[in-house]
Amino acid sequence: MAKKRKGAEGRIPNLAKRYGFGWRKYRDVTLCIHCFKPQPKSERMPDFSIAPAILYVEVKESGKDGRFSFKNSVTDIQREFFKDYPGFIFLEMGSGRAPKHKSAYMIPTEIWFSVTDDLIELGYASFGREKSRPLKKDEKGCPGTDFLFLEWECDWVPMQRDCSLANDDLPGGWDIPIDHPFWKQTEAKLLKAMNSIPKKTT
Asked: CA 113 to CA 60: how far, in whole Å?
């Protein structure tokens, strides 16, 4: 009986891959490394989780001075990957505590490469946040990210008690606005998967 269940479990990854979905296999039981007893959370988890749409995200953040050196920040190998699988650069900028002293952006990779390539060609290698008037340049002469990537800026949301989606309390953090391209790309991936399903013949 156990062998049959293992065979069925082996088909779930292929099922997910068929539609371009992501998947994760949970251990049936995780033992405590100290007492070797089953950990409670591991016993309540199902066998798998399936993510309907995989969106690839590279994470970047400014240094303690609030600036980010974008030149060569993405490797050539990663750049080639994003040509085949467009994704996003999550960039957090600023020094101090969020949200007052920081901004965050979820930037489509094609926009990121277009903007940073143009800046490098103009002789720039880093930028700051520069929360100020549009078109104002920072002390290095480069426009700040709050001008360059304002369209892709994330919002800050306070702590959510008993979040319905997470089924738990969530601390304050960045949120992706509903009109952000992130959601449009998610929807497009789901529609592509749905349209790939063979139609039943009667």
From this structure: 14
pLDDT in tens, 169-179: 677 889 999 99
CB 30, CB 45: distance < 8 Å = no
Show the tokens assigned to 119.
Answer: 């800046």
Q: Tell me the C-alpha to C-alpha distance, in Å, between residue 112 and each of 52, 57, 166, 199, 200.
A: 25, 12, 30, 39, 42
Q: Are 169 and 161 in contact (CB under 8 A)?
A: yes
pLDDT tens track for 174-195: 999 999 988 888 888 888 888 8
Which of 87, 11, 88, 6 shows the shortest CA–CA distance to 50? Answer: 11
C-alpha neighbours within 13 Å on the C-beta side of residue 139: 3
Residue tagged 């101090």 (tokens): 96
